[in-house]
Amino acid sequence: WRTHYNEVRPHSSLQYQTPADFRRASERSSTTGAVNL
């Protein structure tokens, strides 16, 4: 059930994205403008 909940089931709090999709989108957006100090 955890796999289904975290990878398949859309969540309204994530604008109906799956948590896995939300994480991937977040990782992409955070790495595009990242600056290493």
UniProtKB/TrEMBL annotation:
Skewed-composition ranges (Polar residues): 28-37
Ranges where the Integrase catalytic domain occurs: 1-19
Family annotation (InterPro entries): Integrase_cat-core
Gene Ontology BP term (one): DNA integration
Protein name: Integrase catalytic domain-containing protein
Region of interest called Disordered, as start-end residue ranges on this chain: 1-37
Domain of life: Bacteria
Signal peptide: none
